[in-house]
Amino acid sequence: MNAGNILDALEMVDDKYIIEAKEKSFIKANRKVWGMKRMLALAAILAALITFCGFAAYQSGLFDSWLQKPSADPVQTVQSAIEGQAAKEYTLCVRIDEIKTDKEETARIVDRYAGSELAAERGWTDEYLAKHFVVVWAKYYVEYDHTKTFLDDGYTEQYFYLTQDTDTGEWAIVENTSPNTGAASNAA
Length: 188
What we know:
- It is a single chain.
- By secondary structure, this protein is of the alpha+beta class.
- The protein has helices at residues 3-12, 15-60, 74-85, 103-113, 117-122, 126-132, 184-187; strands at 91-101, 133-144, 154-164, 171-176.
- The protein has a four-stranded antiparallel β-sheet.
- The protein starts with a helix and ends with a helix.
- Mean pLDDT is 79; it is low at 57-63 and 183-188.
């Protein structure tokens, strides 16, 4: 087919079909833009919900970060973290009964972490763990305002895992176990 034949064929096509094709093309483009706007709006709503839920979880005590003052003494660091609970708006009372380093638990956890992927991710060599890692055990009593949090009152036993900053010599809590609130029967 040559160019002349193509032009003759195009002249025979009714203009209404060309207009319809243009409109469909415009509608498809519009749908793409509308779909993209819808996706962006959904992403914004999702981000807002995640932020709101995170804030709500923090306020209700689901996410309960430790307010700690790193110290040259790991026991002092844990004590500051537990006492920091008293500063939270949903805490009525905190009383520390006992805090001590636990050498057996430290040795057990160091053996578990030595050479592990987690230790490698955190930059902990076996030598670092041997010299700059300690486990502190604490037993304390805490009472909460249950109009502001769902956390359980009572005697609590908990392990805190601390690492030492090699530059400053200060210990900081890197992790802790979930509180064992069954300690009330042991203390009573």
